[in-house]
Q: What sequence folds into this?
Protein backbone atom coordinates (compact mmCIF):
# COMPACT_ATOMS: atom_id res chain seq x y z
CA UNK A 1 0.00 0.00 0.00
CA UNK A 2 3.02 2.26 -0.18
CA UNK A 3 1.85 3.82 -3.41
CA UNK A 4 -1.57 4.77 -2.02
CA UNK A 5 -1.05 8.51 -2.03
CA UNK A 6 -4.66 9.55 -1.68
CA UNK A 7 -7.33 7.24 -0.44
CA UNK A 8 -11.02 7.97 -0.63
CA UNK A 9 -12.48 5.41 1.68
CA UNK A 10 -16.18 4.45 1.83
CA UNK A 11 -17.27 8.04 1.50
CA UNK A 12 -20.97 8.82 1.85
CA UNK A 13 -22.51 12.22 2.35
CA UNK A 14 -25.99 13.36 3.26
CA UNK A 15 -27.30 16.90 3.09
CA UNK A 16 -30.10 17.97 5.39
CA UNK A 17 -33.24 19.13 3.57
CA UNK A 18 -36.68 20.06 4.90
CA UNK A 19 -37.88 16.61 3.72
CA UNK A 20 -35.23 14.71 5.60
CA UNK A 21 -31.62 13.97 4.66
CA UNK A 22 -30.65 13.74 1.00
CA UNK A 23 -28.01 11.15 0.28
CA UNK A 24 -25.80 12.57 -2.46
CA UNK A 25 -22.94 10.05 -2.42
CA UNK A 26 -22.97 6.45 -1.33
CA UNK A 27 -19.84 4.44 -0.60
CA UNK A 28 -17.37 6.08 -2.97
CA UNK A 29 -14.10 4.20 -2.87
CA UNK A 30 -10.90 4.85 -4.76
CA UNK A 31 -7.16 4.94 -4.34
CA UNK A 32 -4.93 7.32 -6.24
CA UNK A 33 -1.20 6.91 -6.75
CA UNK A 34 1.28 9.74 -6.62
CA UNK A 35 1.59 11.48 -9.96
CA UNK A 36 -1.58 9.94 -11.27
CA UNK A 37 -4.07 11.94 -13.31
CA UNK A 38 -7.63 10.86 -12.56
CA UNK A 39 -10.75 12.23 -14.22
CA UNK A 40 -14.21 12.06 -12.72
CA UNK A 41 -16.90 11.96 -15.35
CA UNK A 42 -20.67 11.69 -15.08
CA UNK A 43 -23.88 13.50 -15.87
CA UNK A 44 -24.51 16.83 -14.23
CA UNK A 45 -25.91 16.55 -10.73
CA UNK A 46 -24.30 13.15 -10.10
CA UNK A 47 -22.11 14.40 -7.30
CA UNK A 48 -18.75 14.78 -9.06
CA UNK A 49 -18.19 18.17 -7.53
CA UNK A 50 -19.23 16.84 -4.14
CA UNK A 51 -16.44 14.25 -4.29
CA UNK A 52 -13.96 16.97 -5.16
CA UNK A 53 -15.20 19.26 -2.40
CA UNK A 54 -14.86 16.43 0.11
CA UNK A 55 -11.25 15.83 -0.94
CA UNK A 56 -10.67 19.58 -0.75
CA UNK A 57 -12.07 19.54 2.77
CA UNK A 58 -14.81 22.03 1.94
CA UNK A 59 -17.50 19.43 2.74
CA UNK A 60 -17.49 16.96 5.60
CA UNK A 61 -18.40 13.35 4.90
CA UNK A 62 -21.26 11.65 6.71
CA UNK A 63 -19.45 8.30 6.78
CA UNK A 64 -16.03 7.30 5.52
CA UNK A 65 -13.12 9.65 4.99
CA UNK A 66 -10.25 10.86 2.88
CA UNK A 67 -6.67 9.96 3.72
CA UNK A 68 -3.77 11.87 2.19
CA UNK A 69 -0.29 10.50 2.85
CA UNK A 70 -1.55 8.61 5.88
CA UNK A 71 -3.39 11.54 7.42
CA UNK A 72 -7.12 12.09 7.45
CA UNK A 73 -8.36 15.21 5.70
CA UNK A 74 -10.91 17.24 7.62
CA UNK A 75 -10.50 20.84 6.59
CA UNK A 76 -9.40 22.75 3.52
CA UNK A 77 -5.73 23.46 3.06
CA UNK A 78 -3.17 24.47 0.46
CA UNK A 79 -1.87 20.88 0.15
CA UNK A 80 -5.05 20.25 -1.84
CA UNK A 81 -5.22 23.29 -4.10
CA UNK A 82 -8.43 23.79 -6.04
CA UNK A 83 -8.86 25.23 -9.52
CA UNK A 84 -12.44 26.42 -9.54
CA UNK A 85 -14.67 26.25 -12.58
CA UNK A 86 -15.18 30.01 -12.82
CA UNK A 87 -11.53 30.81 -12.00
CA UNK A 88 -12.42 32.58 -8.70
CA UNK A 89 -9.68 35.14 -8.99
CA UNK A 90 -10.05 38.15 -6.74
CA UNK A 91 -11.23 40.76 -9.25
CA UNK A 92 -9.51 43.66 -7.49
CA UNK A 93 -6.06 42.09 -7.67
CA UNK A 94 -3.81 41.66 -10.69
CA UNK A 95 -2.82 38.20 -11.91
CA UNK A 96 0.48 38.61 -10.10
CA UNK A 97 -1.18 39.71 -6.85
CA UNK A 98 -3.65 36.83 -6.99
CA UNK A 99 -0.83 34.30 -7.14
CA UNK A 100 1.20 36.30 -4.64
CA UNK A 101 -1.62 36.10 -2.07
CA UNK A 102 -1.43 32.31 -2.21
CA UNK A 103 2.38 32.21 -2.19
CA UNK A 104 2.60 34.60 0.75
CA UNK A 105 0.17 32.48 2.69
CA UNK A 106 1.80 29.12 1.96
CA UNK A 107 5.47 30.12 2.10
CA UNK A 108 5.20 32.65 4.93
CA UNK A 109 8.55 32.66 6.70
CA UNK A 110 9.99 30.03 4.36
CA UNK A 111 10.86 32.19 1.38
CA UNK A 112 12.46 35.61 1.26
CA UNK A 113 10.76 38.49 -0.53
CA UNK A 114 12.92 37.98 -3.61
CA UNK A 115 12.25 34.25 -3.62
CA UNK A 116 8.52 34.87 -3.35
CA UNK A 117 8.63 37.24 -6.31
CA UNK A 118 10.62 34.75 -8.33
CA UNK A 119 8.30 31.90 -7.41
CA UNK A 120 5.17 33.89 -8.38
CA UNK A 121 6.73 34.79 -11.71
CA UNK A 122 7.90 31.23 -12.29
CA UNK A 123 4.38 29.87 -11.82
CA UNK A 124 2.85 32.50 -14.05
CA UNK A 125 5.39 31.67 -16.74
CA UNK A 126 4.48 27.97 -16.42
CA UNK A 127 1.03 28.87 -17.70
CA UNK A 128 2.46 31.38 -20.21
CA UNK A 129 1.02 34.43 -18.48
CA UNK A 130 4.23 36.41 -17.99
CA UNK A 131 3.13 39.01 -20.55
CA UNK A 132 -0.06 39.89 -18.68
CA UNK A 133 1.10 39.48 -15.09
CA UNK A 134 0.04 42.92 -14.00
CA UNK A 135 -3.40 42.91 -15.54
CA UNK A 136 -6.55 42.46 -13.58
CA UNK A 137 -9.02 39.66 -14.24
CA UNK A 138 -11.47 41.94 -16.05
CA UNK A 139 -8.75 42.91 -18.51
CA UNK A 140 -7.88 39.38 -19.66
CA UNK A 141 -9.83 36.65 -21.48
CA UNK A 142 -11.60 33.70 -19.90
CA UNK A 143 -8.84 31.29 -20.87
CA UNK A 144 -6.19 33.56 -19.41
CA UNK A 145 -8.10 33.88 -16.15
CA UNK A 146 -8.24 30.10 -15.90
CA UNK A 147 -4.47 29.98 -16.55
CA UNK A 148 -3.92 32.34 -13.63
CA UNK A 149 -6.21 30.15 -11.52
CA UNK A 150 -4.05 27.15 -12.39
CA UNK A 151 -0.86 29.11 -11.67
CA UNK A 152 -2.28 30.06 -8.28
CA UNK A 153 -3.05 26.42 -7.49
CA UNK A 154 0.36 25.21 -8.73
CA UNK A 155 2.18 27.88 -6.76
CA UNK A 156 0.99 26.30 -3.51
CA UNK A 157 2.97 23.15 -4.43
CA UNK A 158 -0.04 21.01 -3.55
CA UNK A 159 0.17 17.28 -2.95
CA UNK A 160 -3.01 16.94 -4.96
CA UNK A 161 -4.33 19.36 -7.54
CA UNK A 162 -8.11 19.43 -7.65
CA UNK A 163 -9.73 20.81 -10.79
CA UNK A 164 -13.48 21.35 -10.94
CA UNK A 165 -14.42 21.45 -14.64
CA UNK A 166 -11.53 23.83 -15.18
CA UNK A 167 -12.23 24.40 -18.85
CA UNK A 168 -16.00 24.00 -18.78
CA UNK A 169 -16.69 27.68 -19.31
CA UNK A 170 -14.30 28.10 -22.25
CA UNK A 171 -14.94 27.87 -25.97
CA UNK A 172 -13.78 24.73 -27.79
CA UNK A 173 -10.58 26.16 -29.29
CA UNK A 174 -9.44 27.80 -26.08
CA UNK A 175 -10.25 24.61 -24.24
CA UNK A 176 -8.05 22.54 -26.56
CA UNK A 177 -5.27 25.04 -26.08
CA UNK A 178 -5.61 24.87 -22.31
CA UNK A 179 -5.62 21.06 -22.38
CA UNK A 180 -2.35 21.12 -24.30
CA UNK A 181 -0.91 23.50 -21.70
CA UNK A 182 -2.06 21.21 -18.93
CA UNK A 183 -0.41 18.21 -20.64
CA UNK A 184 2.80 20.23 -20.89
CA UNK A 185 2.70 21.25 -17.21
CA UNK A 186 1.83 17.72 -16.15
CA UNK A 187 4.81 16.36 -18.09
CA UNK A 188 7.11 18.77 -16.27
CA UNK A 189 5.73 18.62 -12.75
CA UNK A 190 4.05 15.22 -12.62
CA UNK A 191 1.36 16.35 -10.16
CA UNK A 192 -1.31 14.17 -8.68
CA UNK A 193 -4.49 15.51 -10.23
CA UNK A 194 -8.18 14.89 -9.80
CA UNK A 195 -10.14 16.61 -12.52
CA UNK A 196 -13.88 16.79 -12.96
CA UNK A 197 -15.11 16.98 -16.50
CA UNK A 198 -18.14 16.27 -18.64
CA UNK A 199 -16.08 16.23 -21.81
CA UNK A 200 -15.27 12.70 -22.97
CA UNK A 201 -12.36 13.71 -25.23
CA UNK A 202 -10.81 15.78 -22.47
CA UNK A 203 -11.03 12.88 -20.05
CA UNK A 204 -9.42 10.36 -22.43
CA UNK A 205 -6.74 12.77 -23.62
CA UNK A 206 -5.54 13.84 -20.18
CA UNK A 207 -6.14 10.97 -17.79
CA UNK A 208 -4.36 7.88 -16.59
CA UNK A 209 -7.67 6.68 -15.25
CA UNK A 210 -11.27 7.71 -15.78
CA UNK A 211 -13.69 7.22 -12.92
CA UNK A 212 -17.25 7.11 -14.19
CA UNK A 213 -20.00 7.96 -11.76
CA UNK A 214 -23.58 6.72 -11.67
CA UNK A 215 -26.49 9.11 -11.51
CA UNK A 216 -27.63 10.47 -8.19
CA UNK A 217 -29.17 10.41 -5.68
CA UNK A 218 -26.81 8.14 -3.74
CA UNK A 219 -24.33 8.27 -6.62
CA UNK A 220 -21.30 6.06 -6.55
CA UNK A 221 -18.53 4.87 -8.83
CA UNK A 222 -20.05 2.99 -11.76
CA UNK A 223 -16.91 1.93 -13.55
CA UNK A 224 -13.21 2.70 -13.79
CA UNK A 225 -11.33 2.80 -17.07
CA UNK A 226 -7.55 2.68 -17.23
CA UNK A 227 -6.23 4.72 -20.12
CA UNK A 228 -3.13 3.01 -21.33
CA UNK A 229 -1.97 5.45 -23.97
CA UNK A 230 1.68 6.46 -24.25
CA UNK A 231 2.67 9.96 -23.12
CA UNK A 232 3.22 12.62 -24.24
CA UNK A 233 -0.09 12.51 -25.99
CA UNK A 234 -0.89 14.49 -29.07
CA UNK A 235 -4.49 15.28 -29.87
CA UNK A 236 -4.15 15.21 -33.64
CA UNK A 237 -2.16 11.98 -33.69
CA UNK A 238 -4.66 10.31 -31.38
CA UNK A 239 -7.69 11.32 -33.41
CA UNK A 240 -7.23 8.29 -35.69
CA UNK A 241 -5.80 6.04 -33.00
CA UNK A 242 -7.66 2.78 -32.55
CA UNK A 243 -7.06 2.55 -28.78
CA UNK A 244 -8.01 6.16 -28.23
CA UNK A 245 -11.29 5.69 -30.04
CA UNK A 246 -11.94 2.49 -28.14
CA UNK A 247 -11.55 4.28 -24.79
CA UNK A 248 -13.73 7.08 -26.04
CA UNK A 249 -16.43 4.64 -27.05
CA UNK A 250 -16.25 2.93 -23.66
CA UNK A 251 -16.92 6.17 -21.83
CA UNK A 252 -19.67 7.15 -24.25
CA UNK A 253 -21.34 3.79 -23.80
CA UNK A 254 -21.24 4.17 -20.04
CA UNK A 255 -22.70 7.67 -20.18
CA UNK A 256 -25.35 7.17 -22.82
CA UNK A 257 -26.34 3.52 -22.49
CA UNK A 258 -25.67 2.36 -18.97
CA UNK A 259 -26.22 5.67 -17.17
CA UNK A 260 -28.69 7.67 -19.18
CA UNK A 261 -30.07 10.71 -17.49
CA UNK A 262 -33.24 9.80 -15.58
CA UNK A 263 -35.28 12.48 -17.32
CA UNK A 264 -34.23 11.08 -20.70
CA UNK A 265 -35.45 7.64 -19.68
CA UNK A 266 -38.85 9.06 -18.83
CA UNK A 267 -39.10 10.85 -22.18
CA UNK B 1 -24.25 52.72 -24.44
CA UNK B 2 -21.00 53.25 -22.61
CA UNK B 3 -20.40 56.65 -24.22
CA UNK B 4 -23.92 57.64 -23.32
CA UNK B 5 -23.52 56.43 -19.77
CA UNK B 6 -20.20 58.22 -19.54
CA UNK B 7 -21.64 61.56 -20.52
CA UNK B 8 -24.63 61.16 -18.26
CA UNK B 9 -22.32 60.29 -15.40
CA UNK B 10 -20.04 63.21 -16.03
CA UNK B 11 -22.87 65.69 -15.72
CA UNK B 12 -22.40 67.61 -18.94
CA UNK B 13 -19.98 65.11 -20.45
CA UNK B 14 -16.99 67.39 -20.09
CA UNK B 15 -14.60 64.57 -20.98
CA UNK B 16 -16.29 64.26 -24.32
CA UNK B 17 -16.01 67.98 -24.93
CA UNK B 18 -12.35 67.97 -23.96
CA UNK B 19 -11.56 65.17 -26.33
CA UNK B 20 -13.09 67.18 -29.18
CA UNK B 21 -10.25 69.65 -29.04
CA UNK B 22 -7.67 66.94 -29.45
CA UNK B 23 -9.05 65.67 -32.72
CA UNK B 24 -10.19 68.92 -34.23
CA UNK B 25 -9.88 67.78 -37.85
CA UNK B 26 -12.13 64.78 -37.76
CA UNK B 27 -15.04 66.27 -35.88
CA UNK B 28 -18.42 65.21 -37.05
CA UNK B 29 -20.02 68.63 -36.74
CA UNK B 30 -23.63 67.61 -37.07
CA UNK B 31 -23.10 64.85 -34.51
CA UNK B 32 -21.45 67.28 -32.11
CA UNK B 33 -24.25 69.77 -32.57
CA UNK B 34 -26.79 67.07 -31.85
CA UNK B 35 -24.88 66.07 -28.71
CA UNK B 36 -24.62 69.67 -27.63
CA UNK B 37 -28.36 70.12 -27.99
CA UNK B 38 -29.23 66.94 -26.13
CA UNK B 39 -26.66 67.22 -23.35
CA UNK B 40 -26.74 70.95 -22.71
CA UNK B 41 -29.77 72.30 -24.51
CA UNK B 42 -32.41 70.00 -23.08
CA UNK B 43 -31.58 70.65 -19.41
CA UNK B 44 -31.31 74.39 -20.09
CA UNK B 45 -34.74 74.48 -21.73
CA UNK B 46 -36.18 72.49 -18.83
CA UNK B 47 -34.68 74.90 -16.30
CA UNK B 48 -36.05 77.83 -18.31
CA UNK B 49 -39.55 76.36 -18.30
CA UNK B 50 -39.27 75.76 -14.56
CA UNK B 51 -38.25 79.38 -13.88
CA UNK B 52 -41.11 80.75 -16.00
CA UNK B 53 -43.69 78.48 -14.33
CA UNK B 54 -42.31 79.36 -10.89
CA UNK B 55 -42.48 83.08 -11.59
CA UNK B 56 -46.00 82.78 -12.97
CA UNK B 57 -47.38 80.76 -10.12
CA UNK B 58 -45.55 82.78 -7.43
CA UNK B 59 -47.11 86.00 -8.67
CA UNK B 60 -50.57 84.53 -8.05
CA UNK B 61 -49.95 83.66 -4.40
CA UNK B 62 -50.32 86.35 -1.74
CA UNK B 63 -49.15 85.52 1.77
CA UNK B 64 -49.11 87.50 4.97
CA UNK B 65 -45.51 88.35 4.18
CA UNK B 66 -46.39 89.64 0.74
CA UNK B 67 -46.17 87.96 -2.63
CA UNK B 68 -44.47 84.59 -2.91
CA UNK B 69 -41.01 85.42 -4.29
CA UNK B 70 -40.24 84.60 -7.88
CA UNK B 71 -36.82 83.80 -9.40
CA UNK B 72 -35.79 87.44 -9.70
CA UNK B 73 -36.45 88.27 -6.08
CA UNK B 74 -34.61 85.14 -4.97
CA UNK B 75 -31.62 86.13 -7.06
CA UNK B 76 -31.65 89.62 -5.52
CA UNK B 77 -31.58 88.09 -2.07
CA UNK B 78 -28.73 85.79 -3.06
CA UNK B 79 -26.70 88.87 -3.96
CA UNK B 80 -27.79 90.61 -0.74
CA UNK B 81 -26.77 87.64 1.38
CA UNK B 82 -23.39 87.65 -0.30
CA UNK B 83 -22.97 91.39 0.35
CA UNK B 84 -24.00 90.97 3.97
CA UNK B 85 -21.36 88.28 4.31
CA UNK B 86 -18.67 90.55 2.87
CA UNK B 87 -19.71 93.44 5.12
CA UNK B 88 -19.68 91.24 8.16
CA UNK B 89 -16.16 90.14 7.30
CA UNK B 90 -15.08 93.78 6.94
CA UNK B 91 -16.63 94.57 10.30
CA UNK B 92 -14.79 91.67 11.84
CA UNK B 93 -11.52 92.84 10.35
CA UNK B 94 -12.14 96.36 11.63
CA UNK B 95 -12.93 95.02 15.09
CA UNK B 96 -9.67 93.14 15.30
CA UNK B 97 -7.72 96.12 13.98
CA UNK B 98 -9.24 98.36 16.65
CA UNK B 99 -8.49 95.83 19.34
CA UNK B 100 -4.92 95.47 18.12
CA UNK B 101 -4.40 99.25 18.12
CA UNK B 102 -5.89 99.56 21.57
CA UNK B 103 -3.62 96.87 22.92
CA UNK B 104 -0.53 98.35 21.31
CA UNK B 105 -1.38 101.75 22.79
CA UNK B 106 -1.94 100.17 26.17
CA UNK B 107 1.39 98.41 26.09
CA UNK B 108 3.17 101.60 25.02
CA UNK B 109 1.84 103.39 28.10
CA UNK B 110 2.51 100.56 30.51
CA UNK B 111 4.51 97.49 29.39
CA UNK B 112 3.06 95.47 32.25
CA UNK B 113 -0.54 96.12 31.32
CA UNK B 114 -2.79 93.14 31.02
CA UNK B 115 -4.11 93.04 27.49
CA UNK B 116 -7.32 91.36 26.49
CA UNK B 117 -8.02 89.69 23.16
CA UNK B 118 -11.72 89.21 22.70
CA UNK B 119 -13.14 87.17 19.83
CA UNK B 120 -15.50 88.91 17.46
CA UNK B 121 -19.09 88.12 18.34
CA UNK B 122 -21.00 89.26 15.28
CA UNK B 123 -24.00 87.38 14.01
CA UNK B 124 -23.11 84.42 11.74
CA UNK B 125 -23.87 85.06 8.10
CA UNK B 126 -25.58 82.76 5.65
CA UNK B 127 -22.21 81.45 4.50
CA UNK B 128 -21.01 80.90 8.06
CA UNK B 129 -24.12 78.82 8.62
CA UNK B 130 -23.37 76.77 5.50
CA UNK B 131 -19.90 75.98 6.79
CA UNK B 132 -21.27 75.02 10.20
CA UNK B 133 -23.82 72.70 8.62
CA UNK B 134 -21.32 71.01 6.32
CA UNK B 135 -18.88 70.43 9.18
CA UNK B 136 -21.64 69.06 11.38
CA UNK B 137 -22.93 66.65 8.75
CA UNK B 138 -19.37 65.51 8.00
CA UNK B 139 -18.76 64.77 11.68
CA UNK B 140 -22.02 62.88 12.11
CA UNK B 141 -21.51 60.95 8.91
CA UNK B 142 -17.92 59.98 9.70
CA UNK B 143 -18.91 58.84 13.17
CA UNK B 144 -21.77 56.79 11.73
CA UNK B 145 -19.49 55.21 9.10
CA UNK B 146 -16.91 54.26 11.71
CA UNK B 147 -19.59 52.40 13.62
CA UNK B 148 -21.69 51.08 10.75
CA UNK B 149 -19.03 49.57 8.48
CA UNK B 150 -17.44 47.26 11.08
CA UNK B 151 -20.86 46.36 12.42
CA UNK B 152 -22.12 45.58 8.92
CA UNK B 153 -19.09 43.41 8.21
CA UNK B 154 -19.62 41.43 11.41
CA UNK B 155 -23.35 41.05 10.69
CA UNK B 156 -22.58 39.86 7.17
CA UNK B 157 -20.04 37.29 8.32
CA UNK B 158 -21.97 35.86 11.24
CA UNK B 159 -25.53 34.77 10.77
CA UNK B 160 -26.02 34.55 14.53
CA UNK B 161 -25.00 38.15 15.13
CA UNK B 162 -27.14 39.24 12.20
CA UNK B 163 -30.17 37.43 13.59
CA UNK B 164 -29.50 38.99 16.98
CA UNK B 165 -29.12 42.57 15.73
CA UNK B 166 -31.58 42.58 12.85
CA UNK B 167 -34.73 43.28 14.93
CA UNK B 168 -33.02 46.25 16.61
CA UNK B 169 -31.79 47.61 13.28
CA UNK B 170 -35.22 47.24 11.71
CA UNK B 171 -36.93 49.02 14.61
CA UNK B 172 -34.49 51.92 14.89
CA UNK B 173 -34.12 52.46 11.14
CA UNK B 174 -37.47 54.19 10.52
CA UNK B 175 -37.23 56.50 13.56
CA UNK B 176 -37.45 60.16 12.63
CA UNK B 177 -34.55 62.40 13.67
CA UNK B 178 -36.99 64.68 15.42
CA UNK B 179 -37.79 61.87 17.84
CA UNK B 180 -34.13 61.30 18.61
CA UNK B 181 -33.32 64.95 19.05
CA UNK B 182 -34.81 65.59 22.53
CA UNK B 183 -33.20 62.44 23.88
CA UNK B 184 -29.82 63.30 22.36
CA UNK B 185 -30.07 66.84 23.76
CA UNK B 186 -30.84 65.59 27.26
CA UNK B 187 -28.12 62.95 27.20
CA UNK B 188 -25.48 65.34 25.86
CA UNK B 189 -26.38 67.94 28.52
CA UNK B 190 -26.14 65.30 31.22
CA UNK B 191 -22.99 63.54 30.05
CA UNK B 192 -20.89 66.18 28.33
CA UNK B 193 -19.91 68.31 31.30
CA UNK B 194 -16.57 70.04 31.05
CA UNK B 195 -15.15 73.44 31.92
CA UNK B 196 -13.27 73.76 28.67
CA UNK B 197 -15.55 72.32 25.99
CA UNK B 198 -13.81 71.40 22.77
CA UNK B 199 -17.14 71.26 20.95
CA UNK B 200 -20.26 73.21 21.65
CA UNK B 201 -23.21 71.20 22.87
CA UNK B 202 -25.37 72.24 19.95
CA UNK B 203 -22.74 70.94 17.54
CA UNK B 204 -22.65 67.61 19.35
CA UNK B 205 -26.45 67.39 19.45
CA UNK B 206 -26.76 67.92 15.72
CA UNK B 207 -23.86 65.63 14.84
CA UNK B 208 -25.07 62.77 17.03
CA UNK B 209 -28.60 63.06 15.69
CA UNK B 210 -27.15 62.84 12.17
CA UNK B 211 -25.12 59.80 13.24
CA UNK B 212 -28.17 58.00 14.60
CA UNK B 213 -29.97 58.39 11.29
CA UNK B 214 -26.90 57.70 9.10
CA UNK B 215 -26.10 54.35 10.66
CA UNK B 216 -28.82 52.18 9.20
CA UNK B 217 -28.42 52.28 5.41
CA UNK B 218 -24.67 51.66 5.75
CA UNK B 219 -25.14 48.77 8.18
CA UNK B 220 -27.80 47.13 6.06
CA UNK B 221 -25.99 47.56 2.75
CA UNK B 222 -22.65 46.42 4.14
CA UNK B 223 -24.32 43.36 5.66
CA UNK B 224 -25.94 42.47 2.35
CA UNK B 225 -22.67 43.12 0.49
CA UNK B 226 -20.67 40.91 2.81
CA UNK B 227 -23.19 38.09 2.99
CA UNK B 228 -23.52 37.91 -0.81
CA UNK B 229 -19.82 37.56 -1.57
CA UNK B 230 -19.24 34.88 -4.19
CA UNK B 231 -19.00 31.56 -2.34
CA UNK B 232 -16.00 30.57 -4.44
CA UNK B 233 -14.02 33.55 -3.14
CA UNK B 234 -14.76 32.45 0.42
CA UNK B 235 -13.67 28.94 -0.58
CA UNK B 236 -10.43 30.39 -1.93
CA UNK B 237 -9.77 31.89 1.49
CA UNK B 238 -10.59 28.56 3.13
CA UNK B 239 -8.24 26.62 0.85
CA UNK B 240 -5.51 29.17 1.55
CA UNK B 241 -6.30 29.01 5.27
CA UNK B 242 -6.38 32.77 5.54
CA UNK B 243 -6.77 34.01 9.10
CA UNK B 244 -9.96 35.84 10.05
CA UNK B 245 -8.39 39.28 9.87
CA UNK B 246 -6.54 38.63 6.61
CA UNK B 247 -9.73 37.28 5.11
CA UNK B 248 -11.63 40.43 6.07
CA UNK B 249 -8.93 42.77 4.75
CA UNK B 250 -8.02 40.88 1.57
CA UNK B 251 -11.36 39.47 0.50
CA UNK B 252 -14.41 40.62 2.46
CA UNK B 253 -13.84 44.39 2.42
CA UNK B 254 -12.84 44.73 -1.25
CA UNK B 255 -15.64 42.42 -2.37
CA UNK B 256 -18.30 44.37 -0.52
CA UNK B 257 -17.01 47.85 -1.33
CA UNK B 258 -19.65 48.53 -4.02
CA UNK B 259 -22.53 47.75 -1.67
CA UNK B 260 -20.83 49.57 1.17
CA UNK B 261 -20.62 52.73 -0.91
CA UNK B 262 -24.21 52.40 -2.04
CA UNK B 263 -25.11 52.46 1.66
CA UNK B 264 -22.76 55.32 2.47
CA UNK B 265 -24.30 57.47 -0.26
CA UNK B 266 -27.82 56.86 1.01
CA UNK B 267 -26.61 57.57 4.54
CA UNK B 268 -25.02 60.86 3.63
CA UNK B 269 -28.17 61.93 1.77
CA UNK B 270 -30.31 61.12 4.80
CA UNK B 271 -27.80 62.77 7.12
CA UNK B 272 -27.97 66.05 5.23
CA UNK B 273 -31.78 66.09 5.30
CA UNK B 274 -31.82 65.16 8.97
CA UNK B 275 -29.34 67.86 9.88
CA UNK B 276 -31.44 70.71 8.49
CA UNK B 277 -34.48 69.47 10.42
CA UNK B 278 -32.44 69.05 13.61
CA UNK B 279 -30.99 72.55 13.32
CA UNK B 280 -34.44 74.05 12.82
CA UNK B 281 -35.97 72.26 15.74
CA UNK B 282 -33.12 72.62 18.21
CA UNK B 283 -32.00 76.11 17.20
CA UNK B 284 -28.53 74.73 16.64
CA UNK B 285 -26.37 76.90 14.39
CA UNK B 286 -26.47 75.99 10.74
CA UNK B 287 -28.64 76.35 7.65
CA UNK B 288 -31.69 75.03 9.49
CA UNK B 289 -31.38 77.79 12.05
CA UNK B 290 -31.02 80.32 9.27
CA UNK B 291 -34.31 79.15 7.76
CA UNK B 292 -36.05 79.22 11.12
CA UNK B 293 -34.68 82.65 12.02
CA UNK B 294 -35.87 84.07 8.71
CA UNK B 295 -39.28 82.49 9.24
CA UNK B 296 -39.54 84.07 12.71
CA UNK B 297 -38.18 87.36 11.44
CA UNK B 298 -41.06 87.72 9.00
CA UNK B 299 -39.75 90.62 6.93
CA UNK B 300 -40.85 91.12 3.38
CA UNK B 301 -37.60 89.53 2.23
CA UNK B 302 -37.78 86.49 4.48
CA UNK B 303 -39.40 84.13 2.06
CA UNK B 304 -36.94 84.95 -0.69
CA UNK B 305 -34.06 84.38 1.72
CA UNK B 306 -35.53 81.04 2.77
CA UNK B 307 -35.75 80.09 -0.89
CA UNK B 308 -32.06 80.92 -1.32
CA UNK B 309 -31.41 78.53 1.57
CA UNK B 310 -33.57 75.88 -0.10
CA UNK B 311 -31.47 76.05 -3.24
CA UNK B 312 -28.25 76.08 -1.23
CA UNK B 313 -29.36 72.99 0.70
CA UNK B 314 -30.20 71.23 -2.55
CA UNK B 315 -26.94 72.16 -4.24
CA UNK B 316 -24.82 71.13 -1.27
CA UNK B 317 -26.69 67.83 -1.00
CA UNK B 318 -26.01 67.26 -4.69
CA UNK B 319 -22.32 68.14 -4.26
CA UNK B 320 -21.96 65.79 -1.28
CA UNK B 321 -23.43 62.97 -3.35
CA UNK B 322 -21.04 63.75 -6.24
CA UNK B 323 -18.08 63.65 -3.85
CA UNK B 324 -19.20 60.23 -2.64
CA UNK B 325 -19.59 59.11 -6.25
CA UNK B 326 -16.05 60.24 -7.02
CA UNK B 327 -14.76 58.34 -4.00
CA UNK B 328 -16.75 55.31 -5.05
CA UNK B 329 -15.23 55.42 -8.54
CA UNK B 330 -11.75 55.83 -7.09
CA UNK B 331 -12.00 52.74 -4.88
CA UNK B 332 -14.13 50.59 -7.19
CA UNK B 333 -12.32 47.63 -8.72
CA UNK B 334 -15.10 46.96 -11.17
CA UNK B 335 -14.28 49.58 -13.79
CA UNK B 336 -17.09 48.33 -16.02
CA UNK B 337 -19.80 49.05 -13.49
CA UNK B 338 -22.00 51.99 -14.40
CA UNK B 339 -22.02 54.18 -11.32
CA UNK B 340 -24.38 57.09 -11.16
A:
Amino acid sequence: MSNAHLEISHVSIEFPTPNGPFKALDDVEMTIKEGEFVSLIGHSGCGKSTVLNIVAGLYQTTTGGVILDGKEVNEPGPDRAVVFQNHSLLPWLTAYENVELAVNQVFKGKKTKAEIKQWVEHNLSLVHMEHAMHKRPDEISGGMKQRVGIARALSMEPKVLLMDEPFGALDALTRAHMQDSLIEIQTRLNNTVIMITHDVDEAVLLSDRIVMMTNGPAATIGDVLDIDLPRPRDRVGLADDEHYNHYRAEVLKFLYERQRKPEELVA
Amino acid sequence: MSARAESVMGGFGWKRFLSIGLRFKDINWSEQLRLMITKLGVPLVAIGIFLVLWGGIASQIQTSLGQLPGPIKVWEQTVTLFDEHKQERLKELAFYERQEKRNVAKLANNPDAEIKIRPYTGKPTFFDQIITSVLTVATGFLLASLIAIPLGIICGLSNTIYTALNPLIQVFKPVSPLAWLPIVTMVVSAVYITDDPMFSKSYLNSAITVTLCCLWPTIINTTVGVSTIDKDLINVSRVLRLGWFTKVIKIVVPASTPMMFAGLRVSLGIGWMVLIAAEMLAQNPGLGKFVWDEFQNGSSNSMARIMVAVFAIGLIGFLLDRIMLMLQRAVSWDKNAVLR
Observations:
- The interface with chain B takes residues 56-58, 75-78, 80-82, 84, 86, 88, 90-92, 101-102, 105-106, 136, 138, 156 of chain A (CB under 8 Å).
- The two ends of chain A are 46 Å apart (CA to CA).
- The beta strands of chain A are 6-17, 20-32, 37-41, 63-68, 71-72, 80-83, 160-164, 192-197, 209-213, 221-226.
- Residues 89-157 of chain A form one domain.
